[in-house]
Amino acid sequence: MLDTIDQSMDTASPKADKESTVADLDNCQFFNEMRHSDGTIREEFAQIQQWLANKSLAEIESLNHQAKQHFVYQGITFTVYNDAEGTERTIPLDLVPRIIAKKQWDIVSEGCKQRVKALNAFLNDIYHGQEILKEGIIPAEQVLQHEAYQPWMLNFDVKGKIYSHISGVDLIRDEVGDFFVLEDNLRTPSGVSYMLESRKISEKLMPEICSQYRLQGVEHYPQLLKQTLLESTDVDNPLIVILTPGHFNSAFYEHAFLAREMDIPLVSAQDLFVENGKVYLKSVKGRMQVDVIYRRLDDDFLDPLAFRADSILGVAGLMSAYRNRTVVIANAPGTGVADDKSIYPYVDDMIRYYLNEQPILKNVPTYQCRKPEELDYVLANLEKLVVKEAQGSGGYGMLIGPQAEAEQIEEFRQKLKFRPHLYIAQPTLKLSVSPILSEQGFVDRHIDLRPFVLSSPQEMRIVPGGLTRVALQEGSLVVNSSQGGGIKDTWVVDT
């Protein structure tokens, strides 16, 4: 099997054709998570490489099939909104893990905590003194006129100044292996259930190699999340619920999974009501006062009396109860202004301003199309850049210049000229690659990483690992499941 692995890796080198990335066209090398540039195996991958070498291709394919069947049996799905049939799909899992040495993980962990701490400080500032805006570090109009900025939150104190209790930080590695932050997720970050289910499958199908590695555990994440939510309120023995938009939401499986793991109710709008400034749950025991709501729907749908009047997903009067401090909402309304891609370029400044520290993790260079001089550069170099909607997600609304047809480039050119403030642009990234099992054997595909940071007034917590997403299509840089991506288990190991 060792020869098969070596040969299949050789055939997976980037193709210099129309479908290749800009890095392929420039004959640049990607950072390989498994191998050094000379082809030798990295220390942290040595044991898994030997394990794979001792298996036949048929055995690995059988294990991969069993993993897929587990996802089908457990109903681990996501919904593709732009599919004409609105289909639910099982997310593809590749059994070969992504492995991170603990010394590297320690840097990632501290960098993510630092970043989320600064973002929470920023949110507290812009809803109170607005000092960072007054000093001109961030343009005031870019924040105060932002559609995610919520006047409801002005001068409203949240416990411990924690606005984003659950945060996801998307990371990539460049061609030399340095970690970069691609974006922040502070509204309703998803994917943690995939992280946990991937680990269950690894331990079930590869128990011997998992035991050899003595993997850093992630299974306690639901308990850490529950503890974080408990610490968000001063109420003794509080009632915590997860508020879901319902079964047709793309992350509904995760909502149900976390509710089950934390042993708390999963509720929809029809299960809650507000009376005398308090939120109540309808239950077989009668009405019960709700103290903490872990909401998994966007601000616009939270309360039809405060936001969208046509929302049937939210609870009428919820924001009034929130302002009366009878209920905690996690994450807090108004966090979206801090994870917008047009605010992202300023996070390094936030870290220096609020924490008086240098950023541990780097930002990807970003052009703000709202700035005339940066727009000019973007328009002149569209074929080299990735253009994103500032509030886009899921891999939608993107232009990957090196892979785009001339018509697509021209379409985006007109969009940028018409509404430049809605877009940012970045260099085409040389995302690191990791092996996956394909129909052709083992091939390298691009990956990213989303660690999850939990913040409470008492403590910041992060489990060792995260969600590794993988672009299953050859040459693709888009790892989102909605765009054909899959997932891998993420192992943090001592070396």
Automatic annotation (TrEMBL):
Transmembrane regions listed in the UniProt entry: none
Name assigned to this protein: Uncharacterized conserved protein, circularly permuted ATPgrasp superfamily
SUPFAM superfamilies assigned: Glutathione synthetase ATP-binding domain-like
UniProt cross-references to InterPro entries, sorted A to Z: ATP-dep_Glu-Cys_Ligase-2 (IPR051680), CP_ATPgrasp_2 (IPR025841), UCP005522 (IPR016450)
Region Disordered, residue ranges: 1-20
Pfam families: CP_ATPgrasp_2
Domain Circularly permuted ATP-grasp type: 97-471
Biased composition regions of type Polar residues, renumbered to the chain: 1-11
